[in-house]
Amino acid sequence: MTALGLRLPTGKLLEPLAALGRVNRACSTFQTFAEVLRLPTRQMTKLAFPLQELQRQLTPDSRLDLHVKTFDPSLEDISKAESVFTATGRNCIEYLSSAVRLDHAPDLPHPEVCFIGRSNVGKSSLIKALFSLAPEVEVRVSKKPGHTKKMNFFKVGKYFTLVDMPGYGYRAPEDFVDMVETYLKERRNLMRTFLLVDSVVGIQKTDSIAIGMCEEFALPYVMVLTKIDKSSRGHLLKQVLQIQKFVDTETQGCFPQLFPVSSVTYSGIHLLRCFIANITGNLKTNGL
Ligand code: GDP
Question: Boundaries of each EngB-type G domain copy (predicted)?
Fold first, then answer.
């Protein structure tokens, strides 16, 4: 009786741990760009430039342009950007504080970028992947949606501040709109908002509300497509084309080029690091 009583909860507890183990093994490689550069060209391109890989699958007469050349850094630039995200004695990358109101947010002189998205879109996982070269930084990744209820501020050395915003949609905190709207409208050093969309399901109703908010406040924002490892190529391409059409025709402030990423395979993560280093003024890549 006792043994049976113990077995069930233990089994349940072990499940997420086993899943975490799988993810950790998958992530134990390709975190650094040097590892990516050692891959055969085709595989390297897929990891470093996932959008280019998708573009190659389009027929030449396709009317949709994926704008792959809008931000097209050299491999050298991507390597250089990595130093911004690498924790060293001189480059301290750390969690600073959390806030539920803008007037409680740390007052920092550095440029700032923020990440917003629906609960469960993969925001914490993405931030964790971006910070994988600073393993001391604790970014909590939850199995349950609605985990992030505060704005979490991370300092990236002398370079910039990264803000993890609470997830919207299911189980969003009640004061979410107030908190996020005020932040987006009033944060003076906010350089760019990264709006995450789940590539498996595309733009949902709640995503449209966030997009509407960015448009209304005339914010420069970037759409990041998460979990690209989860879909077949065909499905992913279909979603990307739909989202690209939306960005081209329905938005003003959105950066024309999409950023597809996977926090499991690290696909697109290095390019995103390089983009962030650029827009925070810490690297100069041609074309930006
Ligand atoms: P958040 O609520 O937006 O912070 O989402 P999480 O980062 O906690 O991720 C939600 C779920 O999606 C978790 O089960 C993650 O393991 C999973 N997930 C996040 N990113 C990826 C990804 O790139 N690929 C896959 N396959 N799963 C992911």
Answer: 109-282
> What's the CA-to-centroid distance between 121 and ligand 1, angstroms?
6
Number of the ligand 1 atom closest to the C-alpha atom of 125: 7
Write out pLDDT tens, residues 34-79: 999 999 999 999 999 999 999 998 887 777 889 999 999 999 999 9
Residue with tokens 């233990």: 10
Report which of 36, 163, 28, 157 is spatially closest to residue 88, judged by C-alpha positions: 157
Give residue 136 CA to ligand 1 midpoint distance, Å: 20
| Closest approach atom of ligand 1 to CA 265 | 23
> Nearest residue CA, atom 6 of ligand 1?
122
Q: What is the pLDDT of residues 216-226, one digit of tens each?
A: 999 999 999 99
Q: What is the pTM of this model?
A: 0.88
- Give per-residue pLDDT as tens, 172-200: 656 777 788 899 999 999 999 999 999 99
C-alpha 104/C-alpha 98 separation (Å) is: 8
- Nearest atom in ligand 1 to the alpha carbon of residue 143 is 14
